[in-house]
Amino acid sequence: MKSRRRIAVVTGSRADYGLLRALIKILHADTSVELQLLVCGMHLMPRFGSTWKDIEADGIPIAIRVELSVQDDSPVSAAKATGQGIIGFSDALSSLKPDVLVLIGDRYEMLAAATVATLFNLPIAHIHGGEVTTGAFDDAIRHSLTKMASLHFVAAEPYRRRVIQLGEDPSRVFTVGAPGLDQLPKHDALDRAAVTHELGVSGDHGFLLVTLHPTTAQPESDAPTTEAMLRSLDRVKDRDIVFTGVNADPGYSLIDKAIREFVSARPNHVRLFVSLGSQRYFAALRYADAVIGNSSSGIIEAPAVGTPSINIGERQTGRLRAASVIDCEPDVEAITAALRTALTPEFRERARKNEPPYGRGGASARIAKILREVVLDTLLPKRFYDLPDR
């Protein structure tokens, strides 16, 4: 009897679980696959919402929990957590003995897992490679993961070309779209009344969805960016404001403290959720009047549902843009002007009709099919692919 293919998937936060959720469910339901879910990072930290509970609520078994204790928001803490992750993933992968390891994105948890897999001669499949975000050190991690991976699932054709430029075999680089978009159609049944009730905001007027993360390549910009955004949002009197939690990158406590103080001073129309969870977040994304901040969801997922986005600062510089995204400087007047534009009927109509550059769904099924069918013995050792001479 043919043994099931063991596919290990790493998730370290509410954000990447939201992107991986559809793929994880497909693999879990596939009788030819043994899904091995490794949960780490922010999922296991109470101050970030203990979001491992959301995974269990989805009926997905957690194979192993890998502790990465981030004591504070310093670079030293992140570096030590990465080292702790290498130790934890060494034990986990040695125990599980997967056939292939699936990683997404660009965070240090993924770097720890990829380092171990590389030393174990375990093939890596990487999702969302080839992208550029010059405002964060994630850029270096993302490209490092590309060089350690043998299979590449990219979100758009320009990213496929960049992965090949990095020396990867074109036959192993697949343009599949953004897997996070596969979550969006599943929330059509949630109407506006249900969403506003879940968020605890008024259903009589609209709301703004706000997420701001540290700009790790330019940490000195975080304080002025946060202040400018909050001063601009303080001018909003006709809409509710919903904040989602800051991720666990170096420098998060400054942003988190400022947002909490802003929220506590305005209890009537401002809310903060450490974690909305996938279902509530994607539903909120659909019904928000605009998305504000510097999260990748404003660049990738919001355009797919026709919601205007205001992208502040440099954190997402380099990513493909839809016509529904307004880039602005971290300046009070610039943010206010961008918000004014985003809320006009003309721009909202433009957002509804825009063509998103990351596809319209189906990436998870495409990735799952390739993971099931690829001949794993051919993936290692890797060979550097030289671009043809022109």
Throw out a few tags for this protein:
single chain; 390 residues; alpha/beta; Rossmann fold; 2 domains; 6-stranded parallel sheet; 14 helices; 13 strands
Please summarize what this structure is.
The protein is an alpha/beta fold. It has two domains: about 5-175 and about 360-380, Glycogen Phosphorylase B (Rossmann fold), CATH 3.40.50; about 190-355, Rossmann fold, CATH 3.40.50.
Looking at CATH, which topology of the largest domain would you report?
Rossmann fold
Proportion of helical residues: 25-40%
The CATH homologous superfamily of the largest domain is named Glycogen Phosphorylase B
Described by strand count, sense and barrel closure, the largest sheet is: 7 strands, parallel
- What's the assembly state of these chains? single chain
Percent strand: 15-25%
Describe the global form.
globular
* CATH architecture call of the largest domain: 3-Layer(aba) Sandwich
| Strand order across the largest sheet | 3-2-1-4-5-6-7
Q: Count the strands?
A: 13
How many domain modules? 2
Number of helices: 14
Global Rg: 20 Å
